[in-house]
Specification:
Layout lengths: L15 H9 L3 H23 L2 H18 L9 H20 L29 H19 L3 H12 L4 H8 L3 H29 L6 H16 L5
Helix pairs in contact: 1-2, 2-3, 2-4, 2-6, 3-4, 4-7, 6-8, 7-8
């Protein structure tokens, strides 16, 4: 019997169980398809926890190795994507603890008293160098603000807002109650709005910057004109 072909498109002709079965049998095309389909989601998830690109890539690789090695145990009681996210979350938290990156690791399933605080701080049009630069800077600002979210909120926000997982999928992936997902997502958005508002206020204060060379240039130009044509002449 001919197996259906695997393509690089987001949709697959195989169910999760069938894809897992092919991978368990050593089908390298199926493994490659799995990686390309889930790389972005898993990287963003790991990045949300570790806040470091290289560490996130390493966590994703380790998670894939563990997942592929255990994929024979996959059961269709959850989506394959949810199962993979759960593995990369566990791997990322393990790396975080092992590296002692924080003085106190807050488990994703735990509670966060006080709600936490952030430190102070597109369309489809054709891209020009100027718009690309602006969008790039906006992206970097947003990434910094997301990185500054409390750990318990970051993964929830990335899965819900960036990867657009449902509340149910996010809760299953992080193994936390759906009510907790809703609460943390709402709080994360509020913190980001407050943080970005502060950053915007600072940027507005610096808009159309005048002091320095521009001020000196205008002053000297006026003084020069007055010297050649004194007032009242």
């Amino acid at each position: 019997m001919t197996r259906p072909a695997l393509v690089a498109a987001p949709a697959s002709p195989l169910s999760d169980t069938e894809l897992a079965g092919r991978i368990a049998a050593g089908d390298r095309d199926a493994i490659r398809f799995l990686l390309k389909r889930h790389n972005q989601t898993l990287f963003r998830t790991a990045r949300a926890i570790l806040r470091d690109d290289a560490e996130a890539e390493d966590a994703v690789q380790e998670a894939y190795v563990k997942a592929i090695g255990a994929i024979g145990n996959f059961r269709n009681d959850a989506k394959l994507s949810t199962w993979l996210v759960r593995i990369v979350v566990n791997e990322s938290l393990h790396k975080l603890r092992r590296a002692k990156r924080a003085a106190q690791v807050i488990p994703l399933a735990g509670d966060l008293s006080g709600g936490g605080e952030l430190p102070e701080a597109a369309d489809d049009e054709a891209q020009t160098p100027e718009t690309s630069a602006v969008r790039g800077e906006m992206r970097r600002i947003m990434e910094r603000r997301i990185d500054a979210l409390p750990e318990s909120f970051r993964a929830v926000f990335v899965l819900r807002a960036v990867e657009e997982l449902s509340v149910e999928e996010t809760a299953a992936a992080l193994e936390i109650p759906e009510a907790t997902v809703r609460t943390r997502f709402f709080r994360a958005r509020s913190l980001l709005r407050e943080s970005l508002s502060r950053e915007l206020d600072v940027a507005l204060g610096d808009a159309f910057h005048f002091a320095g060379e521009r001020c000196d240039r205008i002053t000297e130009a006026v003084m020069g004109r007055l010297a050649s044509s004194p007032p009242g002449t």
